[in-house]
Specification:
By secondary structure, the chain is α+β, with helices and mostly antiparallel strands. It folds into 2 domains: 268 residues, 2-Layer Sandwich (BirA Bifunctional Protein, domain 2), CATH 3.30.930.10; 93 residues, Rossmann fold. It is built from 16 helices and 23 strands. Helix 2 packs across helix 12 and helix 3 packs across helix 10. About 1% of the residues have low confidence. Bound molecules: glycyl-adenosine-5'-phosphate. Glycyl-adenosine-5'-phosphate binds next to strand 10, strand 13, strand 16 and helix 12. The site of glycyl-adenosine-5'-phosphate has 20 residues, from strand 10, strand 13, strand 16 and helix 12.
Protein backbone atom coordinates (compact mmCIF):
# COMPACT_ATOMS: atom_id res chain seq x y z
CA UNK A 1 0.00 0.00 0.00
CA UNK A 2 2.91 2.33 0.68
CA UNK A 3 3.70 2.14 -3.04
CA UNK A 4 0.35 3.65 -4.05
CA UNK A 5 1.00 6.53 -1.67
CA UNK A 6 4.33 7.01 -3.37
CA UNK A 7 2.78 7.55 -6.82
CA UNK A 8 0.27 9.97 -5.27
CA UNK A 9 3.17 11.82 -3.66
CA UNK A 10 4.92 12.04 -7.02
CA UNK A 11 1.80 13.24 -8.83
CA UNK A 12 1.34 15.96 -6.24
CA UNK A 13 5.03 16.96 -6.30
CA UNK A 14 4.87 17.11 -10.12
CA UNK A 15 1.97 19.53 -9.99
CA UNK A 16 3.28 21.59 -7.06
CA UNK A 17 6.74 22.08 -8.55
CA UNK A 18 5.78 22.38 -12.21
CA UNK A 19 6.92 19.06 -13.63
CA UNK A 20 3.63 17.79 -15.08
CA UNK A 21 0.10 19.24 -15.32
CA UNK A 22 -3.20 17.82 -16.56
CA UNK A 23 -3.81 19.06 -20.11
CA UNK A 24 -6.49 21.77 -20.48
CA UNK A 25 -6.85 21.87 -16.71
CA UNK A 26 -8.57 25.27 -16.73
CA UNK A 27 -11.34 23.68 -18.81
CA UNK A 28 -11.72 20.73 -16.47
CA UNK A 29 -8.89 18.67 -18.03
CA UNK A 30 -8.64 16.26 -20.95
CA UNK A 31 -8.43 12.63 -19.89
CA UNK A 32 -5.04 10.95 -20.21
CA UNK A 33 -3.37 14.00 -21.78
CA UNK A 34 -0.62 15.80 -19.89
CA UNK A 35 1.54 18.91 -20.24
CA UNK A 36 5.11 19.22 -19.04
CA UNK A 37 5.76 22.33 -16.94
CA UNK A 38 9.06 24.25 -16.70
CA UNK A 39 10.91 21.57 -14.69
CA UNK A 40 9.24 18.69 -16.54
CA UNK A 41 10.13 20.11 -19.95
CA UNK A 42 13.81 20.22 -18.90
CA UNK A 43 13.66 16.70 -17.44
CA UNK A 44 12.02 15.23 -20.52
CA UNK A 45 14.47 17.06 -22.80
CA UNK A 46 17.32 15.54 -20.78
CA UNK A 47 15.82 12.03 -21.12
CA UNK A 48 15.56 12.53 -24.88
CA UNK A 49 19.11 13.90 -25.06
CA UNK A 50 20.50 11.01 -22.99
CA UNK A 51 18.87 8.51 -25.34
CA UNK A 52 20.08 10.35 -28.44
CA UNK A 53 23.60 10.72 -27.06
CA UNK A 54 24.00 7.02 -26.30
CA UNK A 55 22.11 5.73 -29.36
CA UNK A 56 23.27 8.14 -32.09
CA UNK A 57 26.03 10.54 -30.98
CA UNK A 58 28.26 7.94 -29.31
CA UNK A 59 27.87 5.30 -32.02
CA UNK A 60 29.49 5.21 -35.44
CA UNK A 61 26.85 2.84 -36.80
CA UNK A 62 23.62 4.78 -36.11
CA UNK A 63 22.22 7.86 -37.87
CA UNK A 64 19.23 9.99 -36.87
CA UNK A 65 15.97 10.87 -38.59
CA UNK A 66 13.01 13.14 -37.88
CA UNK A 67 9.93 12.12 -39.88
CA UNK A 68 6.51 13.70 -40.23
CA UNK A 69 3.66 12.37 -38.12
CA UNK A 70 1.29 12.22 -41.11
CA UNK A 71 2.21 9.61 -43.71
CA UNK A 72 0.70 8.16 -46.87
CA UNK A 73 -2.24 5.91 -45.86
CA UNK A 74 -0.73 2.94 -47.73
CA UNK A 75 2.13 2.94 -45.20
CA UNK A 76 -0.33 1.71 -42.57
CA UNK A 77 -1.88 -0.80 -44.95
CA UNK A 78 1.56 -2.29 -45.69
CA UNK A 79 2.72 -2.25 -42.07
CA UNK A 80 -0.42 -4.12 -40.99
CA UNK A 81 -1.62 -1.37 -38.65
CA UNK A 82 -4.69 -0.50 -40.76
CA UNK A 83 -6.03 -4.06 -40.41
CA UNK A 84 -4.43 -5.44 -37.27
CA UNK A 85 -3.63 -2.63 -34.85
CA UNK A 86 -6.67 -3.08 -32.63
CA UNK A 87 -7.60 -4.03 -29.11
CA UNK A 88 -10.40 -6.52 -28.57
CA UNK A 89 -13.09 -4.83 -26.52
CA UNK A 90 -16.49 -5.73 -25.07
CA UNK A 91 -19.18 -3.37 -23.87
CA UNK A 92 -20.87 -3.80 -20.49
CA UNK A 93 -24.62 -4.12 -21.18
CA UNK A 94 -25.43 -2.46 -17.87
CA UNK A 95 -23.29 0.71 -17.95
CA UNK A 96 -22.12 0.75 -21.60
CA UNK A 97 -18.48 1.01 -20.60
CA UNK A 98 -16.10 -0.50 -23.15
CA UNK A 99 -13.13 -2.42 -21.75
CA UNK A 100 -10.16 -4.27 -23.19
CA UNK A 101 -11.04 -7.94 -22.93
CA UNK A 102 -7.51 -8.90 -21.91
CA UNK A 103 -7.86 -6.49 -18.97
CA UNK A 104 -11.07 -8.18 -17.81
CA UNK A 105 -9.30 -11.35 -16.73
CA UNK A 106 -8.19 -9.57 -13.65
CA UNK A 107 -8.95 -5.91 -13.79
CA UNK A 108 -6.44 -5.07 -11.08
CA UNK A 109 -3.70 -6.48 -13.23
CA UNK A 110 -2.24 -4.50 -16.10
CA UNK A 111 -1.19 -5.85 -19.48
CA UNK A 112 1.05 -3.18 -20.89
CA UNK A 113 1.35 -4.45 -24.43
CA UNK A 114 -1.30 -4.82 -27.08
CA UNK A 115 -1.98 -8.54 -27.32
CA UNK A 116 -2.11 -9.74 -30.97
CA UNK A 117 -5.69 -9.56 -32.27
CA UNK A 118 -5.93 -13.31 -32.96
CA UNK A 119 -4.76 -14.21 -29.44
CA UNK A 120 -7.10 -11.75 -27.77
CA UNK A 121 -10.08 -12.97 -29.88
CA UNK A 122 -9.36 -16.58 -28.91
CA UNK A 123 -9.06 -15.64 -25.22
CA UNK A 124 -12.25 -13.61 -25.29
CA UNK A 125 -14.69 -16.44 -26.05
CA UNK A 126 -16.06 -16.73 -22.57
CA UNK A 127 -16.77 -13.54 -20.66
CA UNK A 128 -19.42 -15.04 -18.35
CA UNK A 129 -17.26 -14.69 -15.26
CA UNK A 130 -15.66 -11.39 -16.10
CA UNK A 131 -16.34 -8.29 -14.03
CA UNK A 132 -17.03 -4.85 -15.49
CA UNK A 133 -14.36 -2.59 -13.99
CA UNK A 134 -16.74 0.40 -14.13
CA UNK A 135 -19.92 -0.92 -12.45
CA UNK A 136 -18.95 -4.35 -11.09
CA UNK A 137 -21.58 -6.28 -13.07
CA UNK A 138 -20.51 -9.87 -13.79
CA UNK A 139 -20.74 -11.54 -17.20
CA UNK A 140 -22.99 -9.01 -18.93
CA UNK A 141 -20.92 -8.15 -21.97
CA UNK A 142 -21.59 -7.75 -25.69
CA UNK A 143 -19.68 -10.02 -28.07
CA UNK A 144 -16.02 -9.03 -28.26
CA UNK A 145 -15.11 -6.79 -31.21
CA UNK A 146 -11.92 -5.21 -32.52
CA UNK A 147 -11.42 -1.51 -31.79
CA UNK A 148 -8.95 0.30 -34.07
CA UNK A 149 -6.34 2.21 -32.10
CA UNK A 150 -5.26 4.70 -34.76
CA UNK A 151 -6.62 8.25 -34.67
CA UNK A 152 -8.03 9.43 -37.99
CA UNK A 153 -7.77 12.90 -39.42
CA UNK A 154 -8.49 14.57 -42.79
CA UNK A 155 -6.07 16.25 -45.16
CA UNK A 156 -7.32 18.84 -47.66
CA UNK A 157 -9.63 21.82 -47.52
CA UNK A 158 -12.45 20.44 -49.67
CA UNK A 159 -14.77 17.86 -48.21
CA UNK A 160 -15.04 16.05 -51.60
CA UNK A 161 -11.36 15.42 -52.24
CA UNK A 162 -9.98 15.33 -48.71
CA UNK A 163 -7.99 12.26 -47.80
CA UNK A 164 -8.32 10.27 -44.58
CA UNK A 165 -4.99 9.99 -42.83
CA UNK A 166 -3.85 8.48 -39.54
CA UNK A 167 -1.79 9.98 -36.76
CA UNK A 168 1.17 7.58 -36.57
CA UNK A 169 0.85 4.96 -33.81
CA UNK A 170 4.63 4.36 -33.83
CA UNK A 171 7.60 6.27 -35.24
CA UNK A 172 9.15 3.12 -36.70
CA UNK A 173 7.33 3.19 -40.05
CA UNK A 174 8.84 6.56 -40.99
CA UNK A 175 12.24 4.91 -40.62
CA UNK A 176 11.36 1.94 -42.85
CA UNK A 177 9.83 4.26 -45.45
CA UNK A 178 13.11 6.23 -45.56
CA UNK A 179 15.45 3.22 -45.60
CA UNK A 180 16.36 3.75 -49.28
CA UNK A 181 16.74 7.53 -48.84
CA UNK A 182 19.21 7.03 -46.00
CA UNK A 183 21.17 4.40 -47.96
CA UNK A 184 21.39 6.72 -50.98
CA UNK A 185 22.30 9.90 -49.08
CA UNK A 186 24.83 8.62 -46.53
CA UNK A 187 27.72 6.18 -46.41
CA UNK A 188 26.09 3.75 -44.00
CA UNK A 189 26.82 0.07 -44.49
CA UNK A 190 25.06 -2.85 -42.92
CA UNK A 191 25.04 -3.40 -39.96
CA UNK A 192 23.71 0.08 -39.13
CA UNK A 193 20.77 1.70 -37.40
CA UNK A 194 18.38 4.60 -37.94
CA UNK A 195 17.06 6.30 -34.81
CA UNK A 196 14.17 8.65 -34.25
CA UNK A 197 12.42 10.38 -31.36
CA UNK A 198 8.91 11.70 -31.89
CA UNK A 199 5.26 11.79 -30.96
CA UNK A 200 2.97 8.82 -31.50
CA UNK A 201 -0.77 8.54 -30.96
CA UNK A 202 -3.02 5.66 -29.95
CA UNK A 203 -6.68 5.83 -29.07
CA UNK A 204 -6.08 3.58 -26.06
CA UNK A 205 -9.17 1.92 -24.58
CA UNK A 206 -7.62 1.87 -21.13
CA UNK A 207 -5.33 4.69 -20.14
CA UNK A 208 -3.37 4.34 -16.98
CA UNK A 209 -1.57 5.83 -14.03
CA UNK A 210 -0.54 9.39 -14.77
CA UNK A 211 1.80 9.51 -17.82
CA UNK A 212 2.31 5.72 -17.99
CA UNK A 213 -0.24 5.09 -20.74
CA UNK A 214 -1.62 8.09 -22.58
CA UNK A 215 -3.18 8.67 -25.99
CA UNK A 216 -0.44 11.04 -27.14
CA UNK A 217 3.11 10.09 -26.18
CA UNK A 218 6.68 10.22 -27.32
CA UNK A 219 8.72 7.26 -28.53
CA UNK A 220 12.47 6.80 -28.99
CA UNK A 221 12.93 4.04 -31.55
CA UNK A 222 15.92 2.48 -33.20
CA UNK A 223 15.66 0.22 -36.24
CA UNK A 224 18.96 -1.62 -36.47
CA UNK A 225 19.43 -3.27 -39.88
CA UNK A 226 21.63 -6.35 -40.08
CA UNK A 227 22.36 -9.33 -42.31
CA UNK A 228 19.99 -12.29 -41.82
CA UNK A 229 21.84 -14.84 -39.71
CA UNK A 230 23.49 -12.15 -37.56
CA UNK A 231 20.15 -11.04 -36.08
CA UNK A 232 20.27 -13.23 -32.94
CA UNK A 233 23.65 -11.79 -32.03
CA UNK A 234 22.48 -8.18 -32.52
CA UNK A 235 19.29 -8.91 -30.62
CA UNK A 236 21.36 -10.09 -27.63
CA UNK A 237 23.67 -7.07 -27.91
CA UNK A 238 20.87 -4.50 -27.99
CA UNK A 239 19.10 -6.13 -25.04
CA UNK A 240 22.24 -5.61 -22.98
CA UNK A 241 22.88 -2.06 -24.23
CA UNK A 242 19.35 -0.91 -23.53
CA UNK A 243 19.15 -2.52 -20.08
CA UNK A 244 22.42 -0.86 -19.10
CA UNK A 245 21.22 2.53 -20.36
CA UNK A 246 18.63 2.70 -17.58
CA UNK A 247 21.07 1.46 -14.95
CA UNK A 248 23.70 3.99 -16.10
CA UNK A 249 21.18 6.78 -15.60
CA UNK A 250 20.55 5.77 -12.01
CA UNK A 251 17.63 3.32 -12.10
CA UNK A 252 18.10 0.90 -9.19
CA UNK A 253 18.93 -2.62 -10.35
CA UNK A 254 16.30 -4.19 -8.11
CA UNK A 255 13.58 -2.17 -9.91
CA UNK A 256 14.52 -3.24 -13.43
CA UNK A 257 14.25 -6.60 -15.18
CA UNK A 258 14.06 -8.17 -18.61
CA UNK A 259 11.04 -10.31 -19.54
CA UNK A 260 11.00 -12.63 -22.54
CA UNK A 261 7.69 -12.76 -24.48
CA UNK A 262 6.00 -16.12 -24.68
CA UNK A 263 5.23 -17.48 -28.18
CA UNK A 264 1.53 -16.49 -28.11
CA UNK A 265 2.39 -12.96 -26.99
CA UNK A 266 4.65 -12.32 -29.98
CA UNK A 267 3.41 -9.90 -32.63
CA UNK A 268 2.86 -11.55 -36.02
CA UNK A 269 6.11 -10.10 -37.40
CA UNK A 270 8.41 -10.84 -34.47
CA UNK A 271 10.90 -13.68 -34.17
CA UNK A 272 11.67 -12.73 -30.58
CA UNK A 273 10.78 -9.96 -28.15
CA UNK A 274 11.74 -8.91 -24.64
CA UNK A 275 10.39 -6.13 -22.49
CA UNK A 276 12.56 -4.08 -20.19
CA UNK A 277 10.26 -3.81 -17.19
CA UNK A 278 10.23 -1.40 -14.26
CA UNK A 279 8.58 -1.95 -10.91
CA UNK A 280 6.13 0.97 -11.00
CA UNK A 281 4.34 1.84 -7.77
CA UNK A 282 0.75 1.46 -8.98
CA UNK A 283 -1.89 -1.15 -9.72
CA UNK A 284 -0.97 -4.36 -8.00
CA UNK A 285 2.66 -3.22 -7.83
CA UNK A 286 3.41 -5.39 -10.84
CA UNK A 287 6.29 -5.06 -13.21
CA UNK A 288 5.34 -2.91 -16.21
CA UNK A 289 6.82 -2.50 -19.68
CA UNK A 290 9.24 0.36 -20.07
CA UNK A 291 10.63 -0.60 -23.45
CA UNK A 292 10.17 -3.38 -25.99
CA UNK A 293 13.10 -4.89 -27.88
CA UNK A 294 12.04 -6.99 -30.86
CA UNK A 295 13.60 -8.98 -33.66
CA UNK A 296 11.24 -7.78 -36.44
CA UNK A 297 12.98 -9.95 -39.07
CA UNK A 298 12.65 -8.55 -42.63
CA UNK A 299 8.88 -8.19 -42.23
CA UNK A 300 8.60 -4.41 -42.50
CA UNK A 301 10.92 -3.87 -45.45
CA UNK A 302 9.23 -6.72 -47.33
CA UNK A 303 5.80 -5.34 -46.55
CA UNK A 304 6.74 -1.88 -47.84
CA UNK A 305 8.27 -3.42 -50.93
CA UNK A 306 4.96 -5.15 -51.48
CA UNK A 307 3.17 -1.87 -50.68
CA UNK A 308 5.03 0.24 -53.23
CA UNK A 309 4.69 -2.43 -55.90
CA UNK A 310 0.96 -2.60 -55.26
CA UNK A 311 0.82 1.16 -55.73
CA UNK A 312 2.77 1.01 -59.00
CA UNK A 313 0.67 -1.88 -60.30
CA UNK A 314 -2.41 0.03 -59.31
CA UNK A 315 -1.44 2.94 -61.53
CA UNK A 316 -0.39 0.65 -64.40
CA UNK A 317 -3.68 -1.23 -64.26
CA UNK A 318 -5.66 2.04 -64.15
CA UNK A 319 -6.79 1.52 -60.61
CA UNK A 320 -8.25 -1.96 -61.14
CA UNK A 321 -6.82 -3.72 -58.12
CA UNK A 322 -8.37 -7.08 -59.11
CA UNK A 323 -5.83 -7.32 -61.98
CA UNK A 324 -2.88 -7.26 -59.61
CA UNK A 325 -1.05 -10.47 -59.02
CA UNK A 326 1.53 -10.39 -56.24
CA UNK A 327 4.41 -12.70 -57.06
CA UNK A 328 6.23 -13.44 -53.88
CA UNK A 329 9.23 -15.39 -55.13
CA UNK A 330 12.42 -14.67 -53.23
CA UNK A 331 14.25 -13.33 -56.32
CA UNK A 332 11.44 -10.90 -56.91
CA UNK A 333 11.93 -9.27 -53.51
CA UNK A 334 15.59 -8.84 -54.17
CA UNK A 335 14.93 -6.61 -57.19
CA UNK A 336 13.11 -4.15 -54.98
CA UNK A 337 14.46 -0.83 -53.68
CA UNK A 338 14.32 -1.94 -50.06
CA UNK A 339 16.85 -4.69 -50.55
CA UNK A 340 20.55 -4.14 -49.79
CA UNK A 341 23.59 -4.98 -51.89
CA UNK A 342 26.65 -5.97 -49.87
CA UNK A 343 29.57 -4.71 -52.01
CA UNK A 344 32.17 -6.86 -50.26
CA UNK A 345 30.27 -10.13 -50.32
CA UNK A 346 28.61 -9.34 -53.68
CA UNK A 347 25.35 -10.47 -52.19
CA UNK A 348 21.89 -8.90 -52.15
CA UNK A 349 19.45 -9.43 -49.28
CA UNK A 350 16.54 -7.86 -47.44
CA UNK A 351 17.97 -6.85 -44.04
CA UNK A 352 16.66 -8.09 -40.73
CA UNK A 353 15.76 -5.51 -38.12
CA UNK A 354 16.36 -5.36 -34.38
CA UNK A 355 14.13 -2.74 -32.80
CA UNK A 356 14.63 -1.30 -29.32
CA UNK A 357 11.53 0.86 -28.81
CA UNK A 358 11.40 3.05 -25.70
CA UNK A 359 8.80 5.47 -24.37
CA UNK A 360 10.16 8.88 -23.43
CA UNK A 361 7.21 9.72 -21.17
CA UNK A 362 7.21 6.28 -19.58
CA UNK A 363 10.92 6.38 -18.86
CA UNK A 364 10.57 9.95 -17.55
CA UNK A 365 8.00 8.56 -15.08
CA UNK A 366 10.36 5.73 -14.13
CA UNK A 367 13.23 8.19 -13.57
CA UNK A 368 10.94 10.35 -11.41
CA UNK A 369 9.69 7.40 -9.35
CA UNK A 370 13.16 5.95 -8.88
CA UNK A 371 14.69 9.30 -7.90
CA UNK A 372 11.99 10.16 -5.37
CA UNK A 373 13.13 9.92 -1.78
CA UNK A 374 12.36 11.25 1.66
CA UNK A 375 14.98 11.72 4.36
CA UNK A 376 15.61 14.01 7.28
CA UNK A 377 17.39 17.36 7.27
CA UNK A 378 17.72 19.44 10.46
CA UNK A 379 14.97 17.43 12.14
CA UNK A 380 12.50 17.89 9.26
CA UNK A 381 11.32 15.51 6.54
CA UNK A 382 13.02 16.42 3.27
CA UNK A 383 11.58 15.51 -0.17
CA UNK A 384 14.39 14.95 -2.58
CA UNK A 385 14.66 13.84 -6.20
CA UNK A 386 17.98 12.06 -6.54
CA UNK A 387 18.23 12.39 -10.32
CA UNK A 388 21.36 11.37 -12.18
CA UNK A 389 23.10 14.72 -12.93
CA UNK A 390 22.56 14.24 -16.69
CA UNK A 391 18.79 14.16 -16.10
CA UNK A 392 18.45 16.85 -13.41
CA UNK A 393 16.36 19.72 -14.83
CA UNK A 394 18.54 22.34 -13.12
CA UNK A 395 22.23 21.56 -12.70
CA UNK A 396 23.14 24.36 -10.27
CA UNK A 397 21.24 26.94 -8.23
CA UNK A 398 23.02 30.15 -7.22
CA UNK A 399 22.07 32.07 -4.08
CA UNK A 400 23.29 35.16 -2.24
CA UNK A 401 23.19 34.27 1.48
CA UNK A 402 21.42 37.57 2.18
CA UNK A 403 20.03 40.32 -0.04
CA UNK A 404 22.65 42.93 0.94
CA UNK A 405 26.38 43.71 1.19
CA UNK A 406 26.88 43.23 -2.56
CA UNK A 407 26.11 39.48 -2.38
CA UNK A 408 23.24 39.51 -4.91
CA UNK A 409 25.46 41.27 -7.49
CA UNK A 410 28.26 38.70 -7.10
CA UNK A 411 25.76 35.80 -7.19
CA UNK A 412 24.08 37.22 -10.30
CA UNK A 413 27.46 37.50 -12.06
CA UNK A 414 28.25 33.84 -11.24
CA UNK A 415 24.79 32.87 -12.53
CA UNK A 416 25.32 34.83 -15.78
CA UNK A 417 28.69 33.10 -16.32
CA UNK A 418 27.52 29.56 -15.55
CA UNK A 419 24.23 29.64 -17.45
CA UNK A 420 26.18 29.66 -20.73
CA UNK A 421 27.24 26.09 -19.94
CA UNK A 422 24.60 24.60 -17.61
CA UNK A 423 20.92 25.09 -16.89
CA UNK A 424 21.08 27.27 -13.76
CA UNK A 425 18.65 28.97 -11.44
CA UNK A 426 19.07 32.17 -9.42
CA UNK A 427 17.17 32.59 -6.15
CA UNK A 428 17.45 35.24 -3.46
CA UNK A 429 14.06 34.84 -1.77
CA UNK A 430 13.59 33.48 1.78
CA UNK A 431 15.90 31.73 4.21
CA UNK A 432 18.75 29.84 2.59
CA UNK A 433 17.62 26.56 4.22
CA UNK A 434 14.25 26.85 2.50
CA UNK A 435 15.95 27.61 -0.82
CA UNK A 436 18.00 24.40 -0.41
CA UNK A 437 14.79 22.42 0.27
CA UNK A 438 13.15 23.79 -2.87
CA UNK A 439 16.15 22.75 -4.99
CA UNK A 440 16.23 19.28 -3.34
CA UNK A 441 12.61 18.84 -4.41
CA UNK A 442 13.51 19.89 -7.96
CA UNK A 443 16.44 17.44 -7.98
CA UNK A 444 19.16 20.11 -8.41
CA UNK A 445 22.50 18.41 -7.66
CA UNK A 446 24.46 21.54 -6.62
CA UNK A 447 23.63 24.77 -4.79
CA UNK A 448 26.19 27.59 -4.81
CA UNK A 449 25.99 30.22 -2.08
CA UNK A 450 27.74 33.59 -2.01
CA UNK A 451 28.38 34.68 1.60
CA UNK A 452 30.44 37.16 3.64
CA UNK A 453 33.66 35.30 2.94
CA UNK A 454 33.23 35.53 -0.85
CA UNK A 455 34.30 39.19 -0.93
CA UNK A 456 37.42 38.35 1.06
CA UNK A 457 38.78 35.29 -0.73
CA UNK A 458 36.64 34.89 -3.86
CA UNK A 459 35.26 31.51 -2.75
CA UNK A 460 31.68 30.23 -2.44
CA UNK A 461 30.09 27.24 -0.71
CA UNK A 462 28.96 24.40 -2.94
CA UNK A 463 26.37 22.13 -1.34
CA UNK A 464 25.69 18.64 -2.66
CA UNK A 465 22.05 17.55 -2.88
CA UNK A 466 22.45 13.94 -1.76
CA UNK A 467 24.99 14.17 1.06
CA UNK A 468 24.10 17.81 1.95
CA UNK A 469 27.85 18.29 2.46
CA UNK A 470 29.32 21.71 1.72
CA UNK A 471 32.77 22.66 0.48
CA UNK A 472 34.41 25.94 -0.45
CA UNK A 473 35.36 26.39 -4.08
CA UNK A 474 37.09 29.32 -5.79
CA UNK A 475 34.69 31.22 -8.05
CA UNK A 476 37.11 30.83 -10.97
CA UNK A 477 37.03 27.02 -10.54
CA UNK A 478 33.22 26.65 -10.55
CA UNK A 479 32.85 25.90 -14.24
CA UNK A 480 35.46 23.12 -14.19
CA UNK A 481 34.20 21.79 -10.87
CA UNK A 482 30.65 21.43 -12.23
CA UNK A 483 31.84 20.03 -15.58
CA UNK A 484 33.72 17.29 -13.78
CA UNK A 485 30.98 16.50 -11.26
CA UNK A 486 28.11 16.63 -13.74
CA UNK A 487 29.95 14.82 -16.51
CA UNK A 488 28.23 17.02 -19.14
N1 LIG B 1 7.50 0.12 -32.80
C1 LIG B 1 7.22 -0.79 -31.73
C2 LIG B 1 6.30 -0.27 -30.74
O1 LIG B 1 5.70 0.78 -30.92
P1 LIG B 1 5.24 -0.78 -28.39
O2 LIG B 1 5.64 -1.82 -27.39
O3 LIG B 1 3.83 -0.71 -28.81
O4 LIG B 1 6.22 -1.04 -29.64
C3 LIG B 1 7.04 0.88 -27.49
O5 LIG B 1 5.71 0.63 -27.86
C4 LIG B 1 7.11 1.74 -26.25
O6 LIG B 1 6.35 2.94 -26.45
C5 LIG B 1 6.50 1.09 -25.00
O7 LIG B 1 7.41 0.24 -24.36
C6 LIG B 1 6.19 2.32 -24.15
O8 LIG B 1 7.34 2.78 -23.47
C7 LIG B 1 5.80 3.35 -25.21
N2 LIG B 1 4.32 3.40 -25.32
C8 LIG B 1 3.53 2.63 -26.08
N3 LIG B 1 2.23 2.97 -25.92
C9 LIG B 1 2.22 4.00 -25.04
C10 LIG B 1 1.19 4.80 -24.46
N4 LIG B 1 -0.10 4.64 -24.80
N5 LIG B 1 1.54 5.75 -23.57
C11 LIG B 1 2.84 5.96 -23.24
N6 LIG B 1 3.85 5.24 -23.76
C12 LIG B 1 3.55 4.27 -24.65
Amino acid sequence: MAKITKLDDIVSLCKRRGFIFQSSEIYGGLASCYDYGPLGAELKRNVRNAWWKSTVQMRDDVVGLDCSILMHPLVWKASGHADKFADIIAECKKCNTRSRVDHLKNHTEEHAAHVPVETAMADAKNLSKKVCPACGTIGQFTDPMPFRLMFETKMGANADDSMTLFLRPETAQGIFANFRNVLDSTRVKIPFGIAQIGKSFRNEVTTKAFIFRTREFEQAELEFFCEPGTDDEWFARWKEIRFNWYIGLGIKKENLRMREHSKDELAHYAKGCVDVEYKFPFGSGDWQELEGIANRTDFDLRQHQRGIRTLNDWFEKNGDLSKISLKEEAEDWLKGPLSYFDEEKKRRFVPYVIEPSAGIDRSTLAFLVDAYDEDEANGEIRNVLRFHPALAPIKAAIFPLVKKDGMPEIAMKIYDDLKKYFTCFYDEKGAVGRRYRRQDEAGTPYCITVDGQTKEDDTVTVRQRDSMKQERIAVGQLKNYLREKLDV
